[in-house]
Amino acid sequence: MGMFKMEKPRRFNHQYIYVDERKEKLQKMEESAKRDLGMLPPKEFTPEDIRGKFVEGTKHLKRRKESGRKPMTYGALFVSILVLLYILHYLVTGEFTF
């Protein structure tokens, strides 16, 4: 091991020994057949179920959600761009009028 070279640890790789893949595949086929026949309710994925999962996964989005602050709106952004353009016009021409 050198002074500036740090070896990365081995990644965790868990391989199942006693797994019956055929049995799992058969169970999935049974479940899908039952859903097709109407014996089980169909699987439903709605955007409401998925939407919160991405926010929970990131720290900065969690903090923003907890603080209650909203991001800058298009109107505020448009007004700030107009003000900056007016300042740029004044710096270039030296006049306050257009």
Observed structural traits:
mainly alpha, 98 residues
Layout of helices and strands, plus pairs?
Blueprint lengths: L20 H17 L9 H11 L1 H9 L6 H20 L5
- Number of domain units: 1
Tell me, rounded to a whole number, the average pLDDT.
83
Per DSSP, the total helix count is 4
- SSE topology string: HHHH
User: How many angstroms does the end-to-end distance come to?
Assistant: 68 Å
Helical residue percent? 55-70%
Oligomer: single chain
| Biggest β-sheet strands, sense, barrel | none
Taking pLDDT < 50 over at least 5 consecutive residues as the criterion, the unreliable ranges are none
Give the class from helix and strand content and strand pairing: mainly alpha
Please tally the β strands and state the result.
Answer: 0
Q: What percentage of amino acids are in beta strands?
A: under 5%
- Shape field: elongated
Supply Rg: 29 Å
Give a description of the structure:
The protein is mostly helical and 98 residues long. It has one domain. Helices cover 58% and strands 0% of the residues. The protein starts with 20 loop residues before the first helix and ends in a 5-residue tail after the last helix. 0% of the residues are buried. It is built from four helices and no strands.
